[in-house]
Amino acid sequence: MSKSLQYNANTGIFKLDRTGEYYVFTQSPTTIVMNSLRNFKPEDNYDNPEYPLALLRHSLGKSGGALEDYSLYPDYLKRDERKRELSVAVNPDNTLNNLEYRGLKLPIGNNSYYHVVGPIHAGIIEPGHFRFYVTGEMIQFLHIRLGFQKRGIYDLLKNRTAMQTMPLAEAIASDSTISYTTAFANVFEQAAGMKLSDETKLLRLVLLEIERVAIHIADLGAIAGDIGYYPLLGVCSTDRGVPLGVMETLTGSRFGKACIFPGEVRLKKEFSKNELIALGENLKNAFGRVETQILRALKSSTIRERLHDCGNISRNQVYRNGFVGMAARCTGVTQDLRLSEELYVKTGMTLWLEEYKEELLGDAWARFYLRYAELKHSVQWLISILPKLAIPAPAKGEFLIQKKKKFKPGLYFSSIEGWRGPVLVALDISAEGKILQSYVRDPSVLNWHALELAVRGELIGDFPLNNKSFNLSYLGVDL
After folding, report:
1. Contact 330, 360 (CB under 8 A)
2. pTM
3. Mean pLDDT, rounded, of the chain
4. CB-hemisphere CA count at 13 Å for 292?
5. Cα torsion at 96, 50, 418, 443 (round to 10°)?
6. Is 138 exposed, middle or buried, given 0-12, 13-18 or 19+ CB atoms closer than 10 A?
7. DSSP of 130-152, one letter per residue?
8. Which residue, 99, 100, 96, 11, is CA-closest to 45?
9. Element (H, E) at 426
10. 179 with 214: CB under 8 angstroms?
């Protein structure tokens, strides 16, 4: 691996209220570690490049309400990036506002205007407010505001047992149900001293990859639709239902709800080897139909020209801002927590191939191609591994975690490489196995700023395409 591609970034910060101590979660290409921060003061680190500003605001920012009369310094557009973003993020009392602020006013130059979208959206999606500073047809800056539907997840999690927590974990970002339930289950397993069998671990990985396959197919179709390539849109719109159907066959839910619990995975029924082979064949056939249209698209000069050099982010921006998951990998940065999962390696999963590097240059094409590459390898792995699964008869009665009466109190964390990137969950667990405090960091928390950077200098009409190429979560920051 080239030294120039080494990734190391702080991607989570958590203040433990009962001690007042701060903890930082630092991610390398394949792992994430938690360390205590000594004498950490947020206000001393606003301008510290070691802590991405979006992370500071998400983790430590306070809701300052509407900023209706807030105005910026006249030299706003001349400031360097960090100071410019700070100027819209610091409250009058020198605290950071969180990602819920609104009412921002920016100076407008000659021949320029604001183009404002949301929070009411024409589609059935979560509310978000996008304010574009535009000159002619060219975007100069984009400021994104979220948090219009704050759900109180942190308050809801307080004093919850594991069994009471899992339905909430499923709802943090429902398109990442498996990612979040696995992370939450891992935390409770640590506190309860539960050891998972390789069979249970492998089953969770299978569900995680099915989740990835379903969303990647849907996203490839959405990008294709935005550039007017309807053969791929059509086949993706129908065949995304195949992995969702496989998930439902296994778990009873198209999104994998109510199947992952601390210490176990509860499937819908016991499956024979032939039934598992049939599920793999379903995935293989769906991928074959999708790949046919993808390969046609990849050969089309018109489509390549539409996606190439559109919505660029650089490796340097990835390093400086701690972008994670696909937003990092699309620039050729090797960053994937699955690379440290031994079961993937043992079972033949190929996660990162040098042959793709020339396609991964940080633009919309790279994000399109990356999804295809990940989809291909996930499907190939699932086809090979499904017939080898050892699936027990459906468990009945009391759950394993309910049999645990004593827990080792303390702060525990888990991070799972979901389809967007790594979800991070940290829980302060009591001796009774209840949550005292929680911290959740969706990959979108960091990656929304990647979208803000990607559209600078782009045509306003290309924003929907660039937005779809990232497909970030509103819910993941709307806690």
Report:
1. yes
2. 0.94
3. 89
4. 9
5. 20
6. middle
7. EEEEEETTEEEEEEEE--TT---
8. 96
9. strand 422-429
10. no
- Whether 223 shows a pLDDT value over 90: the answer reads yes
CA distance linking residue 459 with residue 470, whole number of Å: 17
Confidence of residue 248 (pLDDT cuts 50, 70, 90): very high
Residue whose C-alpha is closest to residue 177's, from 210, 148, 199, 219: 210
Cα distance between residue 247 and residue 123, in whole Å: 26
| DSSP structure class, residue 437 | E
> Which alpha helices (DSSP H) does 128-272 contain, by range?
153-157, 162-171, 177-192, 198-226, 230-239, 241-251
Burial class of residue 380, CB neighbours in 10 A (0-12, 13-18, 19+): middle
Taking only the tens place, the pLDDT of each residue in 131-171 is 888 888 999 888 888 877 788 999 999 999 999 999 999 99
Contacts of 241 (CB under 8 A, 6+ apart): none
Exposed/middle/buried for 272, CB within 10 Å: 0-12, 13-18, 19+?
exposed
Q: Which amino acid is located at 221 in the chain?
A: G
Contact call for residues 244 and 256 (beta carbons, < 8 A): no
Instruction: Name every residue whose Cβ is closer than 8 Å to that of residue 42 and which is 6 or more positions away in sequence.
Output: 56, 60, 95, 96
Tokens representing residue 16 in the block: 């433990």
Cis ω for the linkage preceding 119 (within 30 of 0)? yes
